Amino acid sequence: MISPNATFQEIRLDMIEADEVRARFRNPARVMRLADNIEEVGLLNPITVRPSKDGKRFLLVCGGHRLAAFEELKRETIPAFVRQLTDEQARQVEVQENLVREDLTVLDRALHLATEKAIYEVRNPVAKRGGDRKSDQIRNNAYLISNRFTLEMAEALDCSEDTISRTIQIAKGVTPELQAEITGTDLANNQAQLLKW
Length: 197
Known about the structure:
The protein is an alpha/beta fold.
C-alpha cells in the first residue's frame, strides 16, 4: 500500500544520493540479474526517495539494488515514490521493506531485525532492558513491552518468537567491517556458524 503522503515521479539518477549507511550492502550479482530483468520486463516496483533537507536533491530510502541496476543500464531517470520522512522514519521504512523480502540472507535479516528493534526501543524507552526501574510494576510492564516486539515481528514474518530472538542475537557481534567481509559469501546464510560469533 502506498503512503498517502507519497507522490510518483520520474527522477534523474544524478539527483539521487544513496546513503553510505544502508541496511544491506549491494550485491553485484543481484544488481546484474535485476538489470537483466528490468531490461526484459521493466521496473515493477519503483524506488522510494525523500527530499534532501535543502530540497534540491533526493535521498534514497528503498531500492538500492534497483537504483544500481538502472545505473548499470545507463538510464537517465528512474520511477520513484517521493515521501516526506524524517531520518528515523526513512530508516524504518527501508528496514521494513527489506524484512518482508524472501531473498534476504540470515545475516541481512539479523541486521534488519536488530535495527527495527533499536528503533522500537527509542519509541518505547521502557522496552529496553536495564535502566532505572522504580517498582516491580514498571519492571513487569517493561518485560511485556519488550516481548511485544518479538511477538509482533514473529507474527509479521510468520515465525516463532524464538526465531526472532536468535536472529537478533546474530547481529550483536557483527561490526560493519565483518558485515562487508561476510556479505556475498556462504557464511552470510549459515545461521549456526553466525550464532557462534
